[in-house]
């Protein structure tokens, strides 16, 4: 109910703001849609804040192989208005909007772009956090007599979480082979969970929209697809190519076709679910935040009352997103485990 | 950058970073953590089993102890009963013996007394007889001067001797 209300509210705001900006005609119009998209899309620079119109941002490395060879430099060289560096610049519009392009014989072309973008850095940060957490936990065990040692502090929290995922998801869903798949599923769960949480932190080095990026979720879903299909049992493949259905459904390969499509739809659903949930959560929070700025020109009374409403809903949404951060990591891991388990049946 | 189009560069970094983290964790972290947790679980399981066994043994020992106490109690009662019976018997026997002894002593004393009485009587009779004979002798010395008197006395003695024998 609340969520629907917030959707409607933010939609109304998105529609209303350009009209309002036109009507007032003063200053540069604030566009919530642009602001939201700007925060959620990947970028070559990690902006922190702007003080009096001056942007404060962390430059990120740009690694590009253009028609003139490899180019490696920090992104602050090309990120301000109209800048170009070594023949490379960021397209303002067109097919490659906001991406690094080069002009080859008057035609805008996209070079091979391996830049460490904001999302890439956010993902690496999340993975580093996960790695440190696990290695510290593992060290706590290695140092002590494992039989008599009851972990405390960080190791205790990590063991609690690992145990809940192991016994709550991996063991029941995967079946007898669960230890083989536990490292992947645990890494996936904690990566998604940590990335979700880091995404909720509104300031640097959090706030990167990692799990709400289609490339990241595509990778995670692809990894699950590999885990399912590379280790699938004979029975699993027999069910795909020669299932137990009447022969006329197999002679014209209707069922095999459906099953083969199913191989791809399952990870596709995983990819879209995670992406859409996190993306939506971030956009709602940002939209509610933009209420303050949209109402800035509408008088003190309206602006202050809407600010109160906005802050209230932002707090509410952040709590909701905290829940979603866990649930989506849980759901992704559980469905991955179920798909893997189904492919393990004999 | 399109909302729904994956970007190659990001995919490259994501794959690289995830693969590195995955292999590092799979090699160094998960075996240690999961192994330790499993070992601890097994340890706790065995300890619980041991505790259960110990509890059962303690319960057994307690029952055994109670059984022994009850047995000892019964034995005590029996021993006390036996002791009481033995005491009564001993007392009774002692009384009986004492009674017999007393009776024997009394009987002996009576017999002795009887014998002594007999002896006294016998000696008294003898003495009386001697005295009587002496007296008679004295009397007779005076009277037996006469033949006739001698004869009749002879007869009297003969009669008496016949009666006494």
How would you briefly describe this protein structure?
The complex is a heterodimer of chains A (about 350) and B (about 160). With about 350 residues, chain A is an alpha+beta fold.
Commentary on this structure:
Chain A has 346 residues and is of the alpha+beta class. Chain A folds into two domains: 45-116, no CATH class; 118-343, no CATH class. Chain A has helices at 2-24, 32-40, 118-143, 153-174, 178-200, 214-230, 234-241, 247-251, 254-294, 300-343; strands at 45-51, 54-59, 61-66, 69-74, 84-85, 88-90, 100-104, 107-109, 112-113. In chain A, the strands form three sheets. In chain A, strands 5-6-7-8 form a four-stranded antiparallel sheet, with no helix packed on it. In chain A, helix 1 packs across helix 9 (254-294). The two termini of chain A are 45 Å apart. With 165 residues, chain B is mostly helical. Chain B has one domain (28-164). Helix content of chain B is 93%, strand content 0%. Chain B is built from two helices and no strands. Chain B has helices at 8-143, 147-164. At the A-B interface, strand 9, helix 3, helix 4, helix 5 and helix 6 of A face helix 1 of B.
Give a quick set of tags describing it.
heterodimer; A: 346 residues; alpha+beta; 2 domains; 4-stranded antiparallel beta sheet; 3-stranded antiparallel beta sheet; 10 helices; 9 strands; B: 165 residues; mainly alpha; 93% helix; rod-shaped
Describe how the helices and strands are arranged.
The complex is a heterodimer of chains A (346) and B (165).
Chain A: H1 2-24, H2 32-40, E1 45-51, E2 54-59, E3 61-66, E4 69-74, E5 84-85, E6 88-90, E7 100-104, E8 107-109, E9 112-113, H3 118-143, H4 153-174, H5 178-200, H6 214-230, H7 234-241, H8 247-251, H9 254-294, H10 300-343
Helix pairs in contact in A: 1-9, 2-9, 3-4, 3-5, 4-5, 4-10, 5-10, 6-9, 6-10, 9-10
Chain B: H1 8-143, H2 147-164
């Amino acid at each position: 109910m609340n969520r629907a209300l917030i959707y409607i509210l933010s939609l109304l705001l998105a529609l209303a703001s350009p009209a309002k900006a036109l009507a007032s005609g003063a200053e540069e119009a604030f566009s919530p849609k642009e602001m939201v998209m700007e925060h959620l899309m990947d970028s070559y620079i990690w902006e922190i804040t702007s003080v009096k119109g001056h942007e404060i941002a962390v430059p990120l490395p740009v690694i590009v192989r253009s028609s003139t060879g490899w180019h490696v430099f920090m992104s602050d060289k090309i990120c301000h208005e109209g800048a170009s560096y070594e023949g490379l610049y960021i397209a303002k519009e067109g097919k490659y909007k906001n991406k690094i392009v080069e002009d080859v014989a008057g035609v805008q072309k996209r070079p091979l772009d391996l830049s460490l973008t904001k999302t890439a850095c956010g993902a690496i940060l999340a993975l580093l956090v996960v790695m440190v957490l696990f290695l510290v936990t593992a060290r706590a065990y290695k140092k002590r007599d494992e039989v008599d040692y009851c972990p405390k502090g960080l190791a205790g929290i990590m063991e609690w979480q690992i145990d809940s995922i192991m016994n709550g998801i991996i063991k029941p869903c995967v079946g007898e082979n669960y230890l083989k798949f536990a490292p992947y599923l645990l890494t996936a769960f904690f990566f998604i969970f940590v990335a979700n949480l880091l995404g909720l932190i509104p300031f640097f080095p959090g706030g990167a929209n990692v799990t709400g990026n289609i490339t990241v979720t595509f990778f995670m879903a692809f990894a699950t697809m590999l885990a399912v299909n590379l280790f699938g049992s004979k029975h699993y493949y027999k069910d795909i190519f020669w299932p137990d259905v009447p022969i006329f459904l197999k002679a014209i390969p209707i069922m095999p076709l459906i099953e083969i499509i199913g191989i791809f739809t399952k990870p596709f659903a995983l990819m879209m679910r995670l992406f859409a949930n996190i993306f939506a959560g971030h956009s709602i929070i940002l939209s509610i935040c933009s209420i303050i700025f949209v109402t800035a020109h509408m008088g003190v009374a309206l602006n202050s009352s809407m600010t109160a409403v906005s802050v209230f809903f932002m707090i509410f949404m952040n709590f909701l997103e905290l829940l979603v951060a866990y649930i989506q990591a849980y759901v992704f891991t559980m469905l991955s485990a179920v798909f893997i388990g189904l492919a393990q049946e004999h | 950058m399109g909302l729904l189009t994956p970007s190659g560069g990001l995919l490259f970094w994501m794959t690289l970073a995830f693969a590195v983290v995955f292999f590092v964790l799979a090699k160094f972290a998960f075996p240690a953590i999961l192994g330790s947790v499993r070992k601890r679980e097994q340890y706790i399981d065995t300890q619980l089993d041991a505790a259960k066994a110990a509890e059962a043994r303690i319960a057994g020992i307690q029952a055994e102890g109670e059984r022994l106490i009850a047995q000892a109690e019964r034995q005590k009662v029996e021993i006390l009963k036996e002791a009481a019976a033995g005491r009564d018997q001993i007392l009774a026997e002692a009384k009986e013996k004492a009674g017999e002894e007393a009776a024997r002593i009394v009987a002996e004393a009576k017999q002795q007394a009887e014998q002594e009485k007999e002896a006294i009587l016998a000696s008294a009779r003898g003495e009386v007889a001697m005295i009587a004979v002496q007296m008679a002798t004295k009397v007779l010395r005076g009277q037996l001067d006469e033949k006739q008197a001698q004869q009749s006395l002879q007869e009297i003695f003969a009669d008496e001797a016949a009666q006494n024998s």
